[in-house]
Automatic annotation (TrEMBL):
Pathway: Cofactor biosynthesis; NAD(+) biosynthesis; iminoaspartate from L-aspartate (oxidase route): step 1/1. It holds the Pfam family Succ_DH_flav_C. Keywords: FAD, Flavoprotein, Oxidoreductase, Pyridine nucleotide biosynthesis. The keyword Oxidoreductase applies. Residues 426-511 form the Fumarate reductase/succinate dehydrogenase flavoprotein-like C-terminal domain. This is L-aspartate oxidase. It is found in: Cytoplasm.
């Protein structure tokens, strides 16, 4: 069924989607698709905070320089400068909405809220709400969104594809409700805020991570994707094979946490002068190498020396969660491993969130703005969500007239595909990606991943062509094709840079590296 005409359709309800909806709604009617699963996505689980130049001892040029270093030569400096310069006003906006950031009551503070430091940052510039910043920001934004009369919310619809027209414009989205019925939401403007692609891997830092569905929906309309090979692995996810994923914030290292191996030895100072506060790509590779060297399946993050008072004060959420899992972090080091965390690549966008497809925008982790380059610096992600949501909102506050054009039809069959078959292929895909396309890649491993994913694709493609649409099936179809494109990008990059490390080509290539740009070809 066709659900009328919508002005601005926002797909995704994390920080980026909520912020954009709120900023546009005073000017145009907004329809927000926010399934219940968004409460388990990356935004809510962001612990550390938001990077911005707020202290009198900090400055914009220093934040820009730190971001460029972390991005390992592949950042778009214009995007970096734009993002950093917009940071303070984004924080002021959140404060005006009532986000409960942690105050700093020390007598010599130059800023009223506590600022912590994380890897890659040369100054304390991370504003936070204890160690649950994402939750605090999401809940505050959602309260304002729920109260806004110009925002219509759908919690029972999941987008499975975008609607294109004969002129190459985006015209909205096709969705399924909880009973499996198809709905076509036609829209003047469509915004993707669907998250990243860490769900392509077995172990992640989010309970229900996205698997690049939004990226592939955009690619199906012809949108350009960029830098898919740069998947960030957070160095410190709680190691507990029997329990769910749980992130141990980078702020733990920012406040003095030390990484030690199974023998109780620190290993970071010998590898990088920044030690535990080196950028995430360096720390994750170091942990991976240390695990292999010692034959252990994890390392430890030790904060016992901080004392119980400081631990409970700075990290109440982490302390409570670890206690619930039987781990006393006041007296025991925290077992940690790297886990898939953040996609630095995604849908190519401009500074206002526009993609290469007219009337389609992308913000947040689904987008590739050029800010992160080859490796995202800690806490620049929520900053990016806010800055580009507000920038995109300014563009969308004024409506343009849509040309008359024929809508592209949806092509589906009527057969059912078993959930067991879908889950079997998804698990095989994740196994391949985790074994061959993770922290360290090799030519042989990438070739094996390409062959294995092609075989899985050949198994799934006939079922997709003949099957009735379902959320699990379409999500897997998006994920599997994105995994293949990501491997293709990694095979094509004949160097090691940032998050892409291949010992078969271990040094940087050109002095002026180029982003990996790709468009979907029929698979």
């Amino acid at each position: 069924m066709t659900d009328g005409k919508h002005e601005v359709l926002v797909i995704g309800g994390g920080v980026a989607g909520l912020a954009l909806a709120l900023e546009v709604a005073d000017h145009r009617r907004v329809t927000l698709l926010r399934p219940a699963s968004d409460d388990q996505g990356a935004s809510r689980w962001a612990q550390g905070g938001i990077a911005a130049v707020l202290s009198p001892q900090d400055d914009v040029e220093a934040h820009i320089a730190d971001t460029l270093v972390a991005g390992d030569g592949l950042c778009d400096e214009r995007a970096v400068r734009f993002t950093v310069e917009q940071g303070p006003s984004a924080i002021e906006w959140l404060l005006s909405l009532g986000v409960p950031f942690t105050p700093d009551t020390s007598p010599d503070t130059g800023y009223p809220y506590h600022l912590t430091r994380e890897g890659g940052h040369g100054a304390r510039r991370i504003i936070h709400a204890d160690d649950a910043t994402g939750r605090a920001v999401v809940e505050t934004l959602r309260q304002h969104v729920d109260a806004h009369p110009n925002i219509g919310k759908y919690g029972d619809l999941t987008a499975i594809g975008l609607i294109g027209d004969s002129e190459g414009h985006c015209r909205g989205a096709r969705c399924l409700d909880t009973d499996g019925r198809l709905h076509e939401l036609l829209a003047d403007d469509t915004v993707l805020a669907t998250g990243g692609a860490s769900g392509l891997y077995r172990h992640t830092t989010s309970p229900q991570p996205a698997s690049g569905e939004g990226m592939m929906m955009a690619a199906e309309l012809g949108a350009e994707l960029m830098n898919l090979e740069f998947q960030q692995f957070h160095p410190t996810c709680l190691f507990d094979p029997e329990g769910p994923a749980f992130l141990i914030s980078e702020a733990v290292r920012g406040e003095g946490g030390l990484l030690i191996n199974a023998l109780g030895e620190r290993f970071m100072p010998a590898l990088d002068p920044r030690a535990e506060l080196a950028p995430r790509d360096i720390v994750a590779r170091a942990i991976d190498a240390e695990k292999q060297r010692t034959g252990s399946d994890h390392v430890f993050l030790d904060i016992r020396h901080l004392g119980e008072t400081a631990i409970r004060h700075h990290f109440p959420t982490i302390h409570a969660h670890c206690t619930s899992r039987g781990l006393d972090i006041v007296h025991q080091p925290i077992p940690v491993v790297p886990a898939a965390h953040y996609s630095c690549g995604g849908v190519t966008t401009y500074l206002d969130g526009a993609t290469t497809v007219p009337r389609l925008h992308a913000i947040g982790e689904v987008a590739c703005t050029g800010l992160h380059g080859a490796n995202r610096m800690a806490s620049n992600s929520l900053l990016e969500c806010l800055v580009y949501a507000r920038s995109c909102a300014r563009r969308l506050q004024t409506a343009d007239t849509l040309p008359i054009a024929k809508l592209a039809p949806a092509l589906w069959g009527s057969q059912k595909v078993s959930l067991e078959s879908i889950e079997e292929i998804r698990e095989a895909m994740r196994q391949l990606m985790s074994a061959r396309m993770a922290i360290v890649r090799t030519d042989q491993g990438l070739n094996e991943a390409a062959r294995g994913l092609a075989q899985l694709h050949d198994r799934l493609a006939p079922q997709v062509r003949s099957a009735a649409p379902s959320v699990p099936l379409t999500n897997l179809w998006h994920a599997l094709r994105l995994a293949r494109l990501s491997v293709d990008c990694a095979r094509a990059r004949r160097e090691s840079r940032g998050l892409h490390f291949n010992p078969d080509c271990p040094i940087h290539g050109d002095e002026t590296p180029h982003p990996s740009r790709i468009q979907l070809e029929e698979m």
